[in-house]
Each structure stands twice: as structure tokens, then as C-alpha cells.
Request: fold
Amino acid sequence: MIDLHSHTLWSDGDLLPAELARRAEAAGYRAIAFTDHVDSSCIDMVVKGLVKAVKDLRRFYRMRLLPGVEITHCPPGEIAELVKAARKLGAGIVLVHGETIAEPVKPGTNRAAILARADVLAHPGLITAEDARLAAKRGVCLEISARAGHSLSNGHVAAAAAAAGAELVFGTDTHSPENICPKKKAIAIARGAGLSARGADALFKRAFRFF
Reply:
């Protein structure tokens, strides 16, 4: 199991990075990215905290760990500068909180994330065909989400990605211990979104390049 989307106490998760790492390891994960929510008010603190946590923990794990961020509910016009800032601060992966149908994300967020070349557009909701094609062109991955609410549009995202040639990855969007997802369940979620068994397995092979 390779998870590109999780949250710790650095934002609204329930667990410290150390505990999330241990629980993920116990669940059979091969790799996990800590991608806490940020905006301009906290990006410096969160990225520096996660970079330090990962540096300290890596000494004790064969499982791969990665510090990252999820730029969340920020004005579309601010997203590019935040993507750049996150990378400069040391984030190994940058997600943008996409236009999920479960939350009032500002229209234009998906497009702004793609234009900024974020690594992953998380739960992009009813992403347009045009934006899916742009994601394919710019190398931005679209997320198949395990999280309730966000996962309701997984089928649409998978179909849009297939039509556009965009890459898909998987994220649990873990906030609590019960969100940790063994690979068997992750594969089932991907299959439920319409992916073939081969396509579902490819989600994790593709994600491993970030580590």
C-alpha cells in the first residue's frame, strides 16, 4: 500500500506523525506521505514540522515517508505561489484540495492547481474534460479518494482521466486511525470507481515514484 494523502496533528488529523507512521507500518504500508492542510498562514510552520518529523523517523523505518502539504480552500489566484513556497520549504509532494462535491471549494481551484503544476489534484469532484486534458498535458495526477464524501465522484474522475490520458493515484485522506486503508480495501475502492484490476494496481506503482 502506498498512500499519497494523509493528515496529522499538524492540521486536522488525530495522530502525531510518529503514531501515523507506526499504524501505517502495522497495516502493511510500503510508503506514506504526510500532507497536512495549509494556507499562507501556516505553510512555513507545517512544512518545517513535517520535514523534521520525517527526517527523524526515517532512521527507524524501512517504510518510506514523505513530507508534503495539501493546499486547502485557498483562492485560486494564490495557489501557484503556495505551490512554489511549499516546494522551496522542502515539501516532497504538493497536493491541492480539489473541487470535491462534498465541500464549497471555490470554482477555478482545479484549473489553478493544474496550471501551477501541483503533483496531485486531490478529490477533483466533477472535473471537466478540458481540465482533465490539461492535467494530462502538465503531468498533474488526479486522485481516487477513499474518504467518504470525496469518494462519491471517483467514478467520474476515473472516466475523465481515462478519456484524457491523465494519470490517477490513490489517497486515503486519512485523518483518524480508522481511515488507514489496507491495500486490499484500496484496490476494491479503485475497482468500484470503474478501474480494471490492472488499472487499480497501477495506481500504487505510479505513486511510488514520489518516494
